[in-house]
UniProtKB/TrEMBL annotation:
Domain of life the protein comes from: Eukaryota
Protein name in the entry: Fatty acid hydroxylase domain-containing protein
Transmembrane segments: 43-63, 91-110, 130-151
Coiled coil regions, renumbered to chain: none
PANTHER family found in the cross-reference section: STEROL DESATURASE
Sample GO molecular function, one term: iron ion binding
Location, primary (coarse class): membrane
Domain Fatty acid hydroxylase: 138-271
Taxonomic lineage: Eukaryota, Fungi, Dikarya, Ascomycota, Saccharomycotina
Record GO biological process: mannosyl-inositol phosphorylceramide biosynthetic process
Pfam families tied to this protein: FA_hydroxylase
Gene name for this UniProt entry: NDAI0C02160
């Protein structure tokens, strides 16, 4: 009898506590209406990154035609036209194909798998639910960074992979926004589409969490290749892996450095693969004392411009750097003829 009374009281207390929680705390459920009535959140997760890519890169295209914005640009439009080996039409077709490929792959996941946790009922206080989403997204960021760092590094150190896959992306020595996903189709699938898909599956992201991840990663990648250093750009304020950091990787002297992408630089720091040789060590170049160490302070656009200008005059360049520069000059001569 006492056990029955005890169980009854315990059950009543639990019910009362649950009632209080439901009445006093904002509760959210993973089962909810789609953001847009005309499409599911799963479909929105597929098409919204494509819209973000072209909208965000379009903003930088507009800046290219504004004289007031040129002081924030890393390389001039003339330099991009001269040094880049791929035409903008060629880049455009490659990126469009990449978007078709990633959308098709994402749609295949939707039709062959159950939705990632959006159809079961789960009520939690809003701050717990959002904290869980934040943790899942943070883990997804780390997975993507790890996947892309090691595959990216491998494609630079394996000559066959570089020649047959990654060299396409490095036809742009002067990066620009809508060329961010200019890759060979296979590299684009392996590096971006598959890597992000694996992160999504491991962390079991809901459709709305996928929307956040895909759009954030897309815009961050575009920003890294935008060719601008904007003082009010949140991506460049929050992340050390920014447009200057990635521009170094696209230069002949930086091809074997700064592999980290798209978010953090912890792998470069751990493996000492970030570019550090900012001191212009050449007796023929006179450097003011306050400019001798670029590493003491943040490498801003003025210091980077100064570094690039004097780098061209260096005598002690690596053999690889000299060969790449000669290749660029040869390509420019063919264009002129």
């Amino acid at each position: 009898m006492s056990e029955y009374v005890s169980e009854t009281v315990t059950g009543a207390v639990k019910d009362s506590v649950n009632d209080v929680i439901r009445e006093t705390l904002p509760l959210i459920s993973t089962t909810r209406d789609s953001i847009f009535a005309s499409m599911s959140d799963d479909v929105l997760a597929l098409i919204s990154p494509v819209i973000s890519y072209w909208t965000f890169s379009g903003m930088f295209f507009i800046l290219d035609h504004m004289k007031s914005a040129q002081r924030f640009k890393i390389h001039s439009l003339e330099e991009a036209e001269k040094r880049n080996r791929a035409t903008k039409t060629h880049v455009l077709t490659h990126v469009l194909f990449q978007h078709m490929l990633q959308t098709a792959f994402g749609y295949l996941l939707i039709v062959t798998m159950d939705s990632t946790g959006t159809h079961h009922i789960s009520q939690r206080p809003f701050y717990i639910a959002y904290a869980i989403s934040f943790i899942k997204l943070a883990i997804a960021f780390l997975i993507i960074d790890t996947w892309q760092y090691w595959l990216h590094r491998l494609m630079h150190y394996d000559k066959r992979l570089y020649k047959n896959l990654h060299s396409v992306h490095h036809e742009l020595y002067v990066p620009y926004a809508f060329g961010a996903l200019f890759n060979s189709p296979l590299e684009g699938f392996l590096l971006d589409t598959l890597g992000t898909g694996i992160a999504m599956l491991i962390t079991n992201l809901s459709a709305r969490e996928q929307i956040i991840l895909y759009n954030f990663a897309t815009m961050k990648t575009v920003d890294d290749h935008c060719g601008y250093v904007l003082p009010w750009d949140p991506f460049q304020v929050l992340f050390k892996n920014n447009s200057i950091y990635h521009d170094i990787h696209h230069q002949p002297f930086g091809l074997k450095y700064n592999f980290a992408q798209p978010f953090f630089i912890f792998w470069d720091n751990l493996l000492d693969s970030n570019f550090k040789d900012f001191n212009i060590q050449d007796p023929n170049i006179q450097i003011p004392d306050n400019e001798k160490s670029f590493l003491k302070n943040k490498l801003d656009i003025n210091k980077y411009h100064y570094f690039l200008k004097n780098r061209k005059s260096l005598k002690n360049k690596s053999k690889e750097e000299i060969e790449i520069e000669q290749e660029i000059e040869s390509a420019n001569s063919k264009k002129a003829n």
